[in-house]
Fold this protein.
Amino acid sequence: MRFSVDNEKTIDAYFGDQRSLKARYEGQLTPSFQSALDDYHAKVTERDAVFYHTIDFGDGVLQKGAWDLRDHEQAYLGGCELSGKRVLEVGPASGFLSAYLASKCADLVVFDLPLGSTSELVPFSEIENMDEFATGARRSVEQLRNSWWLTKRKLGFKASAVYADIYDPPSDLGRFDVAVFGSILLHLSNPFHALQSFAATTDSTIVVTDVLGVQSLSPEVGQSLYGSANMIFAPSPLPSGIVHWWALSPNAIRHMLHKLGFTEFEVTTHSPKRMPSSPPLFTVVARRAAKSGLKR
């Protein structure tokens, strides 16, 4: 069936409708929708899940994952103060950090990929069948989301979940004091756009933690805001490279956030000691300048 138009007004109306389609992701923070999400995942078991984080469920079961952040939460978050704050966590994975954030803040919302979607895949030319990779990635996203709901159920923390487009989030999320991007920007084709999407609704602080995977990206002491603001495209080989878009330097993150109105920065480097590999990480805590409250 072909679309036909009789006049310019019809064309304008058509494209106007397309621009409003982002409303499809609105309404998720209502109690009824959160209850429906809970019911949807109520029968999920360990067989349906893949754990990214190592988590102690406190019932004699230690669920092992690729990343073990136990006893490393404060360093991972750059010591950011959370008490009394409304916090957004982008890319919660299996929920280890979600549980910690929920125990410290006043209200936690986690944000992840829409149900039925897949993560962004780096288009390696040597991959002959990207559809096959996409099918596997879609299943992995589902299993990872299942692990988050299992963790929430077993640990009993309180958090709301929203599943939508990271580059065009729903307009009814409200305002946040703190937004946390925990090792997620390296998996995005456009990390600046993702930061921009949530900087608009973050009043105080953005926390970005990522991997110092390339030695040349290490921050130099006294480096200016724009010095060594590096991004290396597709730094990892297959198979992990299929979801590893960037290696980012701390100053690249600072530079992006400075453009978005954040002017005060703390940068730390650290490694999770419970992990045998002790991967090097960095955390950028970026704050908006405090308002003086003086009237002119």
In short: The CA atoms of residues 69 and 183 lie 12 Å apart. Residues 53-287 form a domain with the Rossmann fold fold (CATH 3.40.50.150). The two ends are 62 Å apart (CA to CA). The first helix runs from residue 8 to 19.
